[in-house]
Amino acid sequence: MFRINLKIAFRNIWKNRLTASIKLFGLIAGLASVVLLVAYVLFELSYDRHNLNADRIYRLHVVQTDGENESIHMPSGMVEMMKQEIPEVEEGTYLSIYETPIQVDRNMFKVKILRTTASFFDLFTVPLKEGADRNTVLKEPKEALVSAAFAKQAFPGQSAIGKTISLNLNSTPYLISGIIGDIPKASHFHGDILVKSNLKQVVNWRGYTSAPQYILLKKGTSPATVLAKMKSLYKKYQFPEKIALKLMPLTDIHLHSHTSGELEPNSDIKYIYIFSIVASLILLIAVVNFINLTVAASLKRSKEIGVKKVLGASMQQLKVQFLSESYIYFIAATFVVFLIIMDLIPLLGNRLGINITFSEVFNLKMIGISLTIIVLSGFIAAFYPAMVLSRMMPADTLKGYTGHIPGKGGFKKFLVVFQFAISALLMVCTMVIYSQLKYISNKNLGFDKDQVLVTSYNMLDNRFTGFKEALLKEKGVKSLSISTFNPGVSYGGTSSWTNDGDTTKYEMEMVYCDLDFMKTLDIKVLKGRSFSEATPAELKAFNTEGQGLTEKQQRELEMRNPILLNEAAAKSLNIKNVDTLLLAGGLQGKVIGVVTDFNGMSLHNKVKPVALYLQPKTTSGYTYVKMETDDLPATRKTIEALWKKHFPDVVTEFQFLDQYLEKLYVSEMRLGSIFIVFAGMAIFLCCIGLFGIVYYELEQKTKEIAIRKVLGASLNDLLTLMNKNFVIMVLIANVIIWPIAYLLINKWLSTFYYRISLSYWPFVWAMLICLVLTILTVSLKALSTIKKSPVDTLKYE
Amino acid sequence: MIRIEKLEKIYKTEEIETTALNDINLHVKEGEFVSIMGPSGCGKSTLLNVMGLLDKPEKGSYHFMDTELLGLNDRERANFRKRNMGFVFQNFNLIDELTVFENIELPLIYNKIATSERKRLVNEIIERMNIVNRSGHFPQQLSGGQQQRVAVARALVTKPKLVLADEPTGNLDSSHGNEVMELLCELNEAGTTIVMVTHSSHDASFSNRIINLKDGHVISEKMNKGRNEELI
To answer: Strand B217-223 and strand A143-147: pairing?
Structure first.
């Protein structure tokens, strides 16, 4: 019996090759999307779980007990203190990581240097592959461990052990003592070179370190126990008021931690939920497609069902037959999906800007979950048609191809509406996400980010003047400036204070810059004037720099210190006129002007009050070069060459400011990328499904069409007839999702302080796209039937 | 063998109810060959479907060899059908995806007959029906007459007690039609009970008894003398 059913199944598939391949193709596309998303979600969830002690490792955070602020910046001695005071804390370490270009022989490498302690290896599972001994590792100050990947790159064909590398300018080189295994991609930190850190271990709340600190708890210790014991230590170690310690589980960092000092951009659990929902929706569309096509196709087979019933097949036997037929498709699709997924994963990774390969996400868990999803969805997709078909009464089915299935197609209509609703929803979301991203990149930030190169932080010397002069002579270079402003990360300094007799807390970001900063970033002055060399007081201030002055003279000078405020700062300090003297918190000087709202941080947040300070002779900070050229790459090359000439010993990296700022929206761009791919997939699946349904609908309507033609219906009449119902269904689907899409997308947009206002256009566009694709799909398929001569059709009937 | 009493079958759609069978009483003896005749829509096919357990009536009773069949559930009906009944249809109802051999084999599979025995039985009937050289063909490669022979072979391969034929010659020309009728007569003579629905009085003349239906009622019953004498 199984054999004969299999025969029927395969012969049927062969006979209906076109629809069978549509069905299979839709299934492959749907399942591949789901498996991809499963792989991605599992990858995100796997962060830091490769560490054998992952469940016992916590990162130290400090939280404001009466606010929302959470930070990983705190005094450096916290781990040592906890190890001494709390017996449940077994070990601890900290990670100070920075990225820098280094030179090995004649080659430049951009590396991540990880400064840590020997306990690093007690917490994190990073294998020591060669050289260094576990017990003595990272004891020497000038000892370096390098990753296998870096060793292979920097010292091809030779052993890296025993070689030396220099990490900074003019300092003793480090001796490579060992090779460590590469840290997996799914880790919240990475490093190519490990060196011993010499951070001073003190709990002094006047100085914070930005190096995150980690502790390893003894087995069986709950973090609550540790926190309870910490409470009694707050006083002893002079914790500021309303500040408490929080233990962030290692495995939660990647998805749940959103502090400003993360070692690498984290993802967000919110996005994991969104992606899981998208995956489920795509799967639903694929399953619905399959059901629709199977039921539609089996109308043609009602005779077979009838005959089998007459010959004694039980409902059970028929159910098994149809179930197994559906499973043939699912097995074939699964097979293909796993074949193509190897190539699709890196593709998806590329789109998301994460460099993942198949082997990194391919594991038993991923296979297991994917297969479970496939088997379950296969069961649902196969079960409904099997139930419907096996229930038909033989006397009805034997009448042949009546075109009616139980339920009168109401369920089918529901499924079509459902599919288009999902597609429309995804399309609306995609369009809004992209409009917002476009808005962000076009938003006026109060400065001009186009054609500007910015370096990494450098401490330069008086060679800078020569460099500046040479550079300004170059064609295409407009101006050059150096300042403490690190786009998207920090302005340079912060000051917060409260005035006497006032409870308002003032906060001010401070940028220290040279004379050309305003010109280089094209910051417009709204009131007063900009910094200028012509002002004697200012000139004197920066020429003497307060040296050899009495305290009184110094004070006077400080009071003439020119300050520029952005609009937000002026408003926050309630400054209406320029030439106001300021003496509050870290602000000391005279406001000489107000500039446009200079906003160098993420647009998720409101622009901060910023004060600009003049440091005319500074040579430390981020160098900005404004270009005015039609050939950006060439000008950039010239600039880089000049840098090399003037600072042969300082390696730095020039990046375009606009691209640098884009990094602030990595997870939003990922969201956009995923949505555009899967919205496309959803609408594609809908069209495939529609094509199949129309195909069978036309077979049922061949006679009707012929009769109408005989009675004088035109091509347009017939196309309208075929399209009408589908157009109505698509319209209904769109209208249904409007409120849902509106709520969802508004919620997402509200995470941005600066956002587009939601217009009706995305909704209109989504509907138009659905309609056009529907009419195209239906009409293309319908035309061939409509064009047939009615004589042939009617004779055949 | 068959005792049908006060049978009633109503078709319902959203708007109208149509009574297809109304107070039908009918007895069929073992070994009989009964024809059911009547104009289109009189309910004759419905009656045949009910007798073949392909359709459920609303009221009445249906005894087959002293077993009441109307209370059976789907599974029991399927089981009873496959053991006791064979069907021949006007449009042959062969499965297009199966060869002649496989089509005939199908009821044996549902009756859980062992493979070797199946092979023997199918070959035997193929020979008897004179379609040996067609056993590997698919239905659409055969003429109408040949297809109906296959359908008859399929109906007979399980050696059913009752064969139900719904206009078996309706889609055939007269010479092929006659062949099929002769085949049915042979079967009947060998002891199989046959109930046949037909439009054609020529075909009906092959049977022992003719029952006339109109608007769901039995309006007359007539013994076919010639055939009965032959039988005696």
So the answer is: unpaired
Contact: A314, B78; criterion CB under 8 Å? yes
Task: State pLDDT tens for residues A243-282.
Answer: 889 999 999 999 998 887 788 888 889 888 988 888 888 8
Pair A617, A516: CB distance under 8 Å: no
How many angstroms separate the CA atoms of A335 and A618, rounded?
64
Do the strands A525-528 and A587-595 form a parallel or antiparallel pair, or are they unpaired? antiparallel
Residue A472 phi/psi, 5-degree rounding, is: -70, -15
pLDDT at B3: 92
In angstroms, rounded to a whole number, what is the distance separating the alpha carbons of residues B216 and B219?
A: 9
Contact A4 B105 (CB under 8 A): yes
End-to-end Cα, chain A, rounded Å: 33
- Radius of gyration of the CA atoms of chain B, in A: 18
Q: At what angle do helices A269-299 and A17-45 cross, to 10 degrees?
A: 160
Q: What is the pTM of this model?
A: 0.75
Q: Which of B110, B147, B158 to mutate to test the interface with A (most CBs of A within 10 A)?
A: B110
Q: Per the structure block, which two tokens stand in for A662? A: 């884009």
Q: Give the Å distances, CA to CA, from B51 to A330, B32, B88, B151, B222.
A: 40, 15, 13, 19, 20
Burial class (CB within 10 angstroms; exposed 0-12, middle 13-18, buried 19+) of A73: middle
Strands (DSSP E) found in A191-333? 193-196, 213-217, 243-249
Instruction: From chain B, pick out residues whose CB is under 8 angstroms from the CB of A306.
Output: 93
User: What's B207's DSSP letter?
Assistant: S
Tell whether the model's pLDDT for residue A671 goes beyond 50.
yes
- Return d(Cα A697, Cα A691) in angstroms, integer: 10
Number of helical (H) and strand (E) elements in chain B, helices listed first: 8, 10
Greater model confidence, B193 or A167: B193
- Residue ranges and CATH numbers for the domains of chain B are 2-231 (3.40.50.300)
Q: Could you count the other beta carbons within 10 Å of the beta carbon of residue A133?
A: 10
Sequential DSSP letters for A569-592: HHHHTT--SSSEEEEETTEEEEEE
> Contact B93/A398, CB-based, under 8 Å?
yes
Q: Tally the C-alpha atoms within 13 A of residue A131's C-alpha that lie toward its C-beta.
A: 22
Q: β-strands A193-196, A243-249: how paired?
A: unpaired
- Residues of chain A above pLDDT 90, percent: 25
Q: Which residues of A fall within a CB distance of 8 Å from B79?
A: 312, 314
| CA–CA dist A14, B103 (Å, integer) | 19
CA distances from A526 to A299, A590, A592 (A): 75, 16, 11
Judged against a pLDDT cut of 70, whether residue A370 lies above it is answered with: yes
Instruction: Find the chain A residues whose C-beta atoms sit closer than 8 A to any C-beta of B.
Output: 1, 4, 7-8, 11-12, 15, 303-304, 306-317, 393-395, 398, 400
Q: Do A681 and A33 contact (CB within 8 A), yes or no?
A: yes
Q: For residues B152 and B84, what is the distance between their CA atoms, to the nearest angstrom?
A: 15
Give the pLDDT confidence of A21-38 residue by residue, as tens digits: 888 988 998 899 888 888
- Mutual angle of helices A410-442 and A761-787, in 10-degree steps: 140
- CA of B102 to nearest chain A CA: how many angstroms apart? 8
The nearest CA of chain A is from the CA of B133 a distance in Å of 21
CA–CA separation, B211 and A627 (whole Å): 104
d(CA B223, CA A117): 110
**Coil/strand/helix, residue A564:** strand
Q: How many residues does chain B have?
A: 232
- What's the CA gap between B98 and B81, in Å, rounded? 22
Q: Average per-residue pLDDT in chain A?
A: 84
Note the pLDDT tens digit of each residue in A435-448.
Answer: 998 998 888 888 99
DSSP element (H, E) containing B118: helix B115-128
- Kindly tell me if the per-residue pLDDT of A546 is higher than 60: no
